């Protein structure tokens, strides 16, 4: 199949599910909270439903994509985000809003594995890494798009979400028409999991969870905090959000850093940068430029660090790449459920400044849980080592891309 014919609708679907459906909520949360009379605690609990829904659906889609086919799973994801956006747009109370959030969040889990499966089936092997990278860029493009639409002062948040729903319908139709149906059963060989693998994953489990906890408030409450200062226009607030997506595009340099330095080095600078983004944001009322510096650092370091977690996971689970991807990003989402829930409570009890300081400090704790991976040629058969080399080469410039035994399965974003 022609490269652009499959990749372009893939970019659009990732942008719709992750950008419009999931991460746009933090951008419009101040207006949503005002209209629906939500406290910070309630807003945090509702926001956590995005990540909770993702946790369940990413497991489901990973297990079922090869059984029902990637096209059906992608269509399920498109329908889920469409329903979610409509419900959010028409919500008149917290219950309807919560249901919409669940559907929108679920779409991101449903859409993650099928695209890698699709690429492996219908894109030439030498072009698969490039295809994964392009589709993976959809989240950053979606974030930039939501920031731009927020500048349209003649639209309120309900109108905007209904427009997003219309876009989701177009993207769903596009994918339905373009993606081929699976004509035969193809099984994924993910290898076997042993006790040694589980023991080796303790560090990445703890680190991923802590990073999820520490980043959740930024996605949910950062714009609310900046807006509350009263020092920024609507355009400035939109630029604040656009910068997250814009600098996220450059997060793919993590692969090059790992190659030139080491996994441990890349992990450390990513953790420090991500924590600094929250700490800097805490001092927003003092220096006008800080929010824009903070959002730029956050966008860059978040995508950078998820790439590091990906490589770490793959090196741990050499013969089970799917598990190597699934563990860190599932636990990242679990951490975000916890972090988002408690952030609202902390804001109500303390304030935004101290909440972001607390979470920034939590974000530094993973420095103590450094990646400890030893993979050598002598520890595995030659064929497996060659496969690992090919795998790492394909994913180093992509946030969540990985090739495993035919067909490939890829995770996009988190």
TrEMBL record:
Q: Which residue intervals define the domain Major facilitator superfamily (MFS) profile in the entry?
A: 5-378
Under InterPro entries, the record lists: MFS (IPR011701), MFS_dom (IPR020846), MFS_Efflux_Transporters (IPR050189), MFS_trans_sf (IPR036259)
- Which keywords annotate this record? Cell membrane, Membrane, Transmembrane, Transmembrane helix, Transport
Which GO molecular-function terms appear in the entry?
Answer: transmembrane transporter activity
Q: Where in the cell is it found?
A: Cell membrane
**Membrane-spanning residues:** 43-61, 73-90, 96-122, 134-155, 161-179, 200-219, 239-258, 265-283, 289-311, 323-346, 352-370
Membrane-related topology note: Multi-pass membrane protein
What GO CC terms are in its UniProt record? plasma membrane
Protein name (database record): MFS transporter
Source organism of the structure:
Staphylococcus shinii
